[in-house]
Amino acid sequence: MTPDLECQGLTKQFDETTAVRGVSFSVAPGSFFSILGPSGCGKTTIMRMIAGFLEPTDGDIRIKGKSMLNVAPNKRPVNMVFQHLALFPMMNVADNIGYGLRRKGLGKSEIARKVGEVLDRIGLPGIETRKPDELSGGQKQRVAIARCMVLEPDVLLLDEPLGALDLKLRERMKIELKSLQAEFDTTFVYITHDQSEALVMSDQIAVMNAGQFEQVGSARDLYYRPKTAFVAGFVGDSNRWRGTVERVDGNRIALRTADGMLIAGATQGAPLATGSAAEIFLRPEAVRVAQDAADLAHFDNRLRGEVSSLLFNGAASRILVRGESGPEIEVTLPQSGEFANLTKGAPVHIGWSGDQTACFAAGS
């Protein structure tokens, strides 16, 4: 099956700065593909090249198998939704959505039919005569998407479209966007610096750093099987240490941190040799907490400590535990409620598996 979008060796040079360096990827028809990375990593530059606002220095962009090099932006089968939705304030909803259809020369009755159909599909029937300032933030978001989808693009590009929304609305719109993508069965290419947006909505995610893709995979792959230290540190929350490898047994290793803590871990990526420096990552939810050390006897890593801080956040509450040596360790509390009455200074035991401790060569 021909990908809806394929980029091959995509590079963009601005004078002495290389913003995008040899990036290649393909997006399957009808899928939700996200590019996730920190500000300045090059993700918006990729989006602007796909849309035709920038010409690549090198490489090719193909949509439905056809090269888009030297094709004007308005001739490409793509549309773009920006963070600031750019709805025309003087036009009502119907005129906003029908703007591109009028530019194409469609008749009034055909435009009205298509506008009505797309409003039904986004769950906002009958709002044709409203002005943008009469809509909620979520409604504006859906109207902006409808304005693009009514033109039936092969690929819809979304440039941080939830960034201007408040937190609660952003959480709801993550689910709605995924539902809209499934409803239209259109290929979405989404860029964001917000890992939660990418993890919740995407079929595939590319994690980008310094102009290159570090890893492309499903949300689960990136979260549970990161291939680089950058991905391990950028996707999700982690306790993080630096240490020296003291023992190697296949991919199982023992490391000593600068604080003197001995940790059993598992090598990710390139093998690590005895004596080499390593970066160590441990998810807070991988750590178990107990009142009795015997309950943690089956774990490779165990230590006794005390609660140095309580981070209450309902079902996502966490504690910081400080052991007899070493730094604080962040631990997610179980949702069973058995530790709901923990107080600062309370003694606890924590443990975790070496398989949950991801280790990478330092500087990788």
Please provide a brief summary of the model.
By secondary structure, the protein is of the alpha+beta class. The chain has helices at 43-51, 93-103, 108-121, 137-149, 167-184, 195-201, 219-224, 229-234; strands spanning 5-14, 17-27, 32-36, 58-63, 66-67, 78-81, 155-159, 187-192, 204-209, 212-217, 239-249, 252-257, 262-267, 277-282, 288-290, 301-311, 318-323, 328-332, 347-352, 357-361. It has two domains: 5-230, Rossmann fold, CATH 3.40.50; 237-361, RNA polymerase II/Efflux pump adaptor protein, barrel-sandwich hybrid domain (OB fold (Dihydrolipoamide Acetyltransferase, E2P), Beta Barrel).
Description:
By secondary structure, the protein is of the alpha+beta class. The chain folds into two domains: 5-230, P-loop containing nucleotide triphosphate hydrolases (Rossmann fold, 3-Layer(aba) Sandwich); 237-361, OB fold (Dihydrolipoamide Acetyltransferase, E2P). Helices cover 23% and strands 35% of the residues. It has eight helices and 20 strands. The strands form four sheets. It has a six-stranded mixed sheet with strand order 6-7-8-3-9-10, with helices on both faces. Strands 11-12-13-20-14 form a five-stranded mixed beta barrel. A five-stranded antiparallel sheet has the order 15-19-16-17-18, with no helix packed on it.
